[in-house]
Amino acid sequence: MKFKKFFIKTCNELEGEKNTTRKIACKKCGKKISVSKIRKNYFVCPNCGNYYLVRARRRILMLADKRSFIEHDRELTSKNILSFPEYDEKLEKAKIKSRENEGVICGTCLIGGVKVCIFSMDPYFMMGSMGSVVGEKITRLFEYATKNSLPVLGITVSGGARMQEGMLSLMQMSKVSAAVKRHSDKNNLYINLLTNPTTGGVNASFAMLGDITLSEPHARVGFAGPRVIEKTLNKSLPKGFQRAESVLKCGFIDMIVERKNQKELISKLLIMHS
Ligand SMILES: [Zn+2]
What we know:
Order of helices and strands: HEEHHEHEEHEHEHEHHEH
Radius of gyration: 18 Å
Helix content: 25-40%
Structural class: alpha/beta
Bound molecules: zinc ion
Number of strands: 9
């Protein structure tokens, strides 16, 4: 594993990807599609419309104006403070898989010419789980945005709080929420885009605190998983439970927006509020 690390290409730059004719099979419909076609289609299957997971840095590339992203706190990484078994190994594996230091990327960029603070969670880093570094990075971003009167755009994907950090990860829920409140008290805008899945402690804190809450189609949005709820209630759950479409009907989401339209819509919202 250590030797393998030698060859990791860090994903520092947003631009500069090679074109590839390599084909992969869609996990949903099974059709073989070229990687470049999937990329051009915003990582949505052109055949069946299945939404693929998107790396945090790719998300920013899809939304930010060209060459406008400046990263904050890239050097912060988690430590195994509680000496939780196998956590160190899991962190190393997550770094290789995601090519990132942590489960969230934070910084500033322009979207439609408007300067915005942006955080983007990475599904390839322990499924965007929130440990103390994820919480700290997002808190610092909100504090920076408050100080500089900037809006915040969040893109959330998370299985919830990182259990390997116990109470330290749970306390991030209130820490980030308090920073969101201070940002809001100064009349600053916070838009959050929920992506599949946004669950657990992230859902129960900053993911649902936006002034405007957007979601991708079919994203799972909820707190506890459906199997846990079914077992606790001893009842079967309705079809589409915790999917964005049903959460929208319950009033927790303002709008569902397809991936190809996200940049345009977010630009408009930012311009309207600037
Ligand atoms: Zn497909």
